[in-house]
Each structure stands twice: as structure tokens, then as C-alpha cells.
Amino acid sequence: MVLLIQSPTIDQVGVEERVARLMTRSIKKESELEGLKLALNMIDLTTLEGKDTVGKVKQMCYKAQHLADDIAGLPTVAAVCVYVNHVKTAKRALVNSGIKIASVATAFPSGNSSRKVKIEETKMAVANGADEVDMVISRGEFLQGNYNFVFDEIAAIKEACGPARLKVILETGELSTLDNVRKASDIAIHAGADFIKTSTGKIQPAATMPVTLVMLQAIKDHYDATGIMVGMKPAGGISTSKSALNYLVMLYETLGEKWMTNEWFRFGASSLANDIILQLGKEKYGAYYSNNYISKD
Questions:
Q1: Is the sign of the CA dihedral 86, 150, 233, 4 positive or negative?
Q2: Is residue 182 part of a domain?
Q3: How many domains does the chain contain in total?
Q4: Is residue 5 a part of any domain in this protein?
């Protein structure tokens, strides 16, 4: 098909000024604690390494269900994210937990493979039990201006997902400009993405607040025009409770209360879970846990 998507030009100075203002918002203590629990419930706990083993995946799945058993009222994380060949292991380990299973596909993280291979890998992930598929766009095609190629590929992967939700990774660190981030967001949304996601976590810079704000605005404009909600997942580089709260403030002020659940917003930031647990532990005990009591996964 021929794309007729007209993306607006991004005022980078304006975006950076708005982000700076959002980061000055003060949060009351009670709201801060609720925000940290909400952020914890929005995390996709992730292991995507060449050295991943069955044992490591099982351990991560256990952690996902038992973040800190001595702190009452903690939620679980939203999902675990693994490679396709570890989906069955995660499925068995998380049975009846309510935690989603996400799988990266489409020649993650480079995206450099044929469409046929990408579709087959996507179908394999879903057949193995994935509730969600995280795909990467073909950045080389995008940067050459082959927007129809990128749109059609996303649409084909969306179809291959069947009942699974599709998160489309833009790899914003390779897109260079906020104008490109907006264009890629619009293409992904119109091609059928259930979520748009900043990064694979393998490229720096990964998630940043200016990039995330541009992507949130693309979601808002689409919702205002169509009434259709699309989710957002900043991933990579978000490691502190303070930064997570800043992202939640930005989410609330840009998209509103409807998006303040893990159905529509996720953090791709495994190390963030540890920092939130440390902060909540300090609130309960008056002192920080030793890092030795928290797994590094």
C-alpha cells in the first residue's frame, strides 16, 4: 500500500523544555509509594542474553512472582520477556500467576533477516505460549525512506501474532532525530502495533524522556483522531525509582488516567525492579536492604 501518513515536525527545544518542567513536579509521600508499586507492576522483567539457560529463566520467573515476600501488598511484575526458545520454560514456570509471557522475535535485536524468517519466528513464539511479541523494525529500510516496506512488515508480523499483542520496537537510538521517532511511531501505530517501544536495550542511547514524550504524543494524536488506544514501553536505561516516577508523571499528564495500568504502559527495565524494592524496603524497615539479598536479574 502507499502510505499517506503525515507526521508533524517536532520542535526539539519545545520537547526538552516540557520534559524539564515535568521533572520538577513534586509528589507527596503517599502518592510516591503508590507510584512505585504501580511502576513495579508495569515492569517487563527481561533476560535476553546469549548465555541464557533454562535455569536462569526459571529463576527469573520465580523472582517475578516473589519480588519481596516480606513486604505485604506488593504486586507482581507485568511480564517476563525471553527469547523464543525459552518461552515454553517461562510458560510452565508462570502457570496460574497472571504474569504475561513476552518473546522477542523478528531477528532481534538487529532485525536483519527476511520477512519469511521473521514471520515464522513470530508464529513459533505464539505457538510456544507467548502472550506478547516484541518485534524490531527494519531501521535500514526506514532510514532509506522505505516507509511502505516498514509499514507492510509490521502489518505482516501483526497478522502472524494472532491473539498475541504486538510491541513494535523502533530502536530510537539509531533513528537520530525526533522527527524520525515521530514518523516511525506513526507508521507502527497505523500498521497495527498494540504497543510502541523505544529500544532493544542493546543500543545507546536507549529510552530517554524526550523520545518517550514524542512517542506518547503520537499515541495521543492517534487516540484523539480514532478513539483507539495504543500502549507505550520505554525500555533500556531506566534504573531508578525517581526516573520511573518522572515517566509516570509524563504519562499521566500526556495521556491521562486510562493509560495508568500495565495493560497500556510498561517499563523494559529489569534493574528498576531492584531499586524499587530497595526503596519500599527502606520505607518499611527504615533502612535499605543489602544488595546481597536481591538477585541481579
A1: negative
A2: yes
A3: 1
A4: no
- Residue at 264 is within a domain: yes
The series of mean pLDDT values per 10 residues for the chain, 297 residues long, is 78 97 88 95 96 96 92 94 98 97 97 97 98 98 96 98 98 97 98 98 93 98 98 95 96 98 94 92 74 60
Classify residue 6: in a domain, yes or no.
no
Domain extent, residue 276, equals 12-24+45-293
Q: How big is the CA angle at 80 (ends 222 and 157), to the nearest 5 degrees?
A: 45
**CATH code where residue 68 lies:** 3.20.20.70
Catalytic residues: 134, 197, 233
